[in-house]
Amino acid sequence: MTARCQRGPGGGTPPGGHNDGVRNGGVSFWWQQVGLPTPTDRLDGDVTCDVAIVGAGLTGLWTAYYLHEADPTLDIRLVEAEFAGFGASGRNGGWLSSELPGSPRAYAAAAGEAGLESMRTAVRGSVHEVMAVAEGEGIDADIRLSGVLHVARSQAQAERLDGELSAAQVAERIRVAGAVSGHVDPDCARVHPAKLVGGVARAVRARGVRIHEGTRALRIEPGAVVTDRGTVRAPTVLRCLEGFTAGLPGHRREWLPMNSAIIATAPLTDAQWAEIGWAGEELLGDEAHAYCYAQRTADGRIAMGGRGIPYRFGSRTDVDGRTQNWTVESLRSTLTSLFPSLAGITIDHAWCGVLGVPRDWSASVCFDPATGLGHAGGYVGSGLTATNLAGRTLRDLVLGAPTDLTALPWTGHDVRRWEPEPLRWAGVHTLYRLYRAADRREDAGLLRTSRIARIANRVAGR
């Protein structure tokens, strides 16, 4: 991780403080629940190693894990500005999902329908790979392979979803107000994000990989990572910063740091769970353009996320996960729209984070043997699974042996940069105003996807 914004979000909430009883920030509810780590093993002067990885989120950690597994003689070091899992890896909604990290159209254009199908198969297999590693490493991350229930709440959403479940069948699983149809993807698991990333970090350290926390990368160049505490020299340098990529010089327009926010309720009572019918542990999402996503946590809460302020001017990022008060209220309103019986429920925690969005909304894994530079990311919100696949793909690229993974359509995928400011800020905010307008039209009875959303998708490059 590299840069964080210099001013907090609006609403007047003090750092890591409370507003109307809601704790706002503190990185995330997940980290507050298990305890915030203290950065350790700070870099102390110049060092040399075989592989230097910038960013100790799941992309960097998985890459280190699989590289060491393939060649235990490698000296691998990670550089992390805060602590391992500080960013999206420890703040996400906990969906270990088979969803593609990008546009099917873009992947098909790069590798044809066969390449697209290979990508789908690899992502789906990665769900089970993460679960297998967690079991083998003794990582208890509240993982449940419970599937995800996608719900349509309007006829336009139902057209997009094309689900196999009727409204009555949806209600048998979860009683979502206004649901007209649904679809279940069985290859999705609920996860506690901080427990997962913390467990992977422990597994990596146990293998002798060094994670230099509290060490901020200032720039990356062939053969070196220059930090505020010394220079790490290595023939292979991998950038794994996802939404924080824009903080590095020369990378401000590469991936857009898109904001997503989450709230966590107080634990529900047995009566409240019975009222909404959420007896299982499946995840829940809707088909709105400004969509929401939710999980029933292991300790009986609902954690639900969605878009708040989608983008901050100049690619700035949040301060320790704090979000705007109006975003908290918007998510509260969405929650009670889904479950009217939960009106008045206590919201214990709110936080936000950034995800990396390329201009064509499709992730990439790249490595140049000539310079020794590589990177992975741009997962557009589907990173919990994709990070594992990216780590294994980077391993194969670095080791130089062509494999099925290096042949996937995201390998070497390159897109144009985002527009400069103020066009970038104006464009993204206009885009999400259009999506919200499309949702309003569809909720009012439009039978097909709003033309406004179709236009927005073309402008966005999705």
Q: Roughly how many Å is the radius of gyration?
A: 21 Å
Would you state the CATH class? Answer: Alpha Beta
Architecture (CATH level 2) name:
3-Layer(bba) Sandwich
Cα(first) to Cα(last) distance is 27 Å
Integer count of domains: 1
What fraction strand?
15-25%
User: What does the main sheet amount to?
Assistant: 10 strands, mixed
- List low-pLDDT spans: 1-18
Helix fraction by DSSP (H/I, runs of at least 4): 25-40%
The total beta strand count reads 22
Inertia-based shape = globular
CATH homologous superfamily title: FAD/NAD(P)-binding domain
Query: What structural class do helix, strand and pairing data support?
Result: alpha/beta
Secondary structure topology:
Blueprint: E1 18-19, E2 22-24, H1 29-34, E3 47-48, E4 51-54, H2 58-70, E5 76-79, E6 95-97, H3 104-137, E7 148-152, H4 155-161, E8 165-166, H5 167-173, E9 181-185, E10 188-190, H6 193-206, E11 210-212, E12 217-221, E13 224-227, E14 230-233, E15 236-239, E16 256-265, H7 270-276, E17 283-286, E18 292-296, E19 302-306, H8 325-338, E20 347-357, E21 364-368, E22 373-377, H9 383-399, H10 423-443, H11 451-460
Parallel strand pairs: 2-20, 3-14, 4-5, 4-15, 5-11, 7-17, 15-22
Antiparallel strand pairs: 1-2, 6-10, 7-9, 8-9, 12-13, 13-14, 16-19, 16-20, 17-18, 18-19, 21-22
Helix pairs in contact: 2-6, 2-9, 3-9, 10-11
Biased composition (Gly residues): 8-19
Pfam families: DAO
Region (Disordered): 1-24
